[in-house]
Design a protein that fits this description.
By secondary structure, this protein is of the alpha/beta class. Helices cover 33% and strands 26% of the residues. It folds into two domains: 222 residues, Rossmann fold; 223 residues, Class I glutamine amidotransferase (GATase) domain (Rossmann fold, 3-Layer(aba) Sandwich).
Length: 468
């Protein structure tokens, strides 16, 4: 399985730029490619999927453990072509001071060759010290090539090549000249997701121009130099019967879904049905459950709020007992209102609180929860590992809001609690990966099978009568 990991000296060093340009260039040259993202990032993975023209997979040893990471990689990777893994942050930056769960640790886990991206703006020989320092810190890390980003002209490149190759004996396999404009659209979470960007054709053209500075033959040779990966992918049990309909919101407002989460639901007997919260007038009939992932509802708040018939159908479904699982942006949709940039937008009103969006993170990083109260999906005592990256927070009112989990690590919803619950609805700021938490798909599907769609209308009528 030819493979390489694109690492960097820090966040913002150019790993994503290089990874996307390289994937497009390899495809143009006739290679099959598969893409992977180190860590739980949704947005970079979406762009990698776009560049590879195939769903990118997230690989995270903290969430999944080493064995599951290897199994996932082998199952999704290819033996004829190139498997590209984009690292995150600096190559040694991980869970703690020892660099646990870093990109370097992932390289060791997968025996993947490393191509290091270095932002060389305003440095020359010091760049060689960066490379030498990486080799000294971990002599077993297989750094096989260097790509220089932000090169300021031919003379700058010649000095850098001479300094690095003479001091470190690692070849320069690519250069990117300093650009006046970043070809990738950015926003506070990083890049703007491709689902929200109409100009991807121009982005592709610009990235392919950057790739002209890559030595593709050398890079492919580095990928092929990776040793055999001895592992057996875990057998995946697949239900032959698709007996339940599970809706999931999928549009430019809600796009944060791991492919494995939807696949695990499908393997368990679900028929996943995509629904647009921006364009649909109501939820489809006959749903047994609804899954609402994360995204950017605040960027689409006016359109979402004006689609009252859809929001009302979500509220009625919740009142009727429909199992609903929501993460981050999904939680925001289920609130009474969403406050954003000085305006207040009515939402579905499933939970008795408002949410407010900010321009700075309100929770960021890995999270760990312990289920300690009754809920529709998880058994008591279960420990959930996930991540949170939210720019909103809950504004509690006078009405108490039940929760299912104590927050061991992270911020959660409020007061060191996460996963708010009402009826068969659960929502929180923690994102879960189905391979890391197989109990998620099982609990969700069990709840869906307990639900009777035909009884929902009776439940709604009873609730409305009780409300007067």
């Amino acid at each position: 399985m030819p493979r390489l990991l694109i690492g960097g000296m820090s966040g913002g060093s150019g790993k994503t730029l290089v990874s996307l340009a390289l994937l497009l260039a390899l495809r143009r040259a006739g290679f099959q490619v598969r893409a992977f993202k180190k860590g739980p990032d949704y947005i970079d993975a979406a762009w990698l999927s776009w560049a590879a023209s195939y769903p990118a997979r997230n690989l995270d040893t903290y969430l999944m453990g080493r064995d599951t990471v290897r199994s996932s990689f082998v199952r999704a990777g290819i033996t004829d072509g190139v498997n590209l893994i984009e690292g995150n942050r600096g190559i040694f930056d991980g869970f703690d001071a020892a660099g646990t769960h870093s990109s370097a640790a992932l390289s060791h886990c997968l025996a993947a060759s490393v191509v290091l991206v270095i932002n060389v703006a305003k440095v020359t020989r010091t760049a060689a010290a960066f490379v030498a320092g990486c080799r000294a810190l971990d002599r077993e890390l297989p750094i096989r090539g260097i790509i220089l980003n932000n090169v300021n002209g031919q003379r700058h490149e010649e000095v850098l090549r001479a300094a690095i190759e003479s001091a470190c004996a690692i070849p320069i396999v690519g250069t990117i000249r300093k650009a006046a404009v970043n070809p990738l659209p950015e926003r506070y979470l990083g890049l703007v997701p491709p689902q929200e960007h109409a100009g991807t054709a121009q982005i592709q053209e610009n990235l392919l121009k950057l790739a002209d500075g890559f030595d593709l033959d050398a890079i492919v040779s580095i990928a092929r130099s990776a040793p055999s990966l001895e592992t057996d992918p875990t057998e995946v049990a697949v239900s032959a019967v698709k007996d339940i309909k599970v809706g999931y919101l999928r549009d430019s407002a809600f796009s944060f879904y791991y492919p494995e989460n939807l696949e695990q639901l499908e393997h368990g007997g679900a028929e996943p049905i995509p629904v647009s919260a921006l364009q649909s007038s109501a939820l489809p009939e006959g749903l047994c459950a609804l899954y609402i992932g994360g995204g950017f509802p605040e960027k689409h708040a006016e359109v979402l709020s004006s689609n009252r018939s859809f929001l009302e159908s979500v509220r009625e479904a919740a009142l009727g007992g429909l199992p609903i699982y929501a993460e981050c942006g999904g939680l925001m949709l289920l609130a009474q209102t969403l406050r954003w940039e000085g305006r207040t937008y009515p939402m579905a009103g499933v939970f008795p609180f408002d949410v407010e969006g900010f321009n700075t993170p309100q929770g960021h990083g890995y999270s760990e929860l312990r289920v300690d109260r009754p809920n529709p999906f998880f058994p008591a005592g279960l420990v959930l590992r996930g991540h949170e990256f939210h720019y909103s927070r809950i504004l509690l009112g006078d009405e108490p809001v039940p929760t299912a989990c104590a927050v061991i690590r992270g911020v959660g919803c409020f007061q060191k609690r996460d996963l708010v619950i009402t009826r068969n609805v659960m929502a929180g700021y923690t994102h879960l990966h189905a391979l890391a938490t197989p109990e998620w798909a099982k609990g969700f599907l069990d709840a869906a099978r307990r639900f009777e769609p035909r009884a929902a209308h009776r439940n709604i009528s009873h609730t409305v009568e009780a409300m007067g």
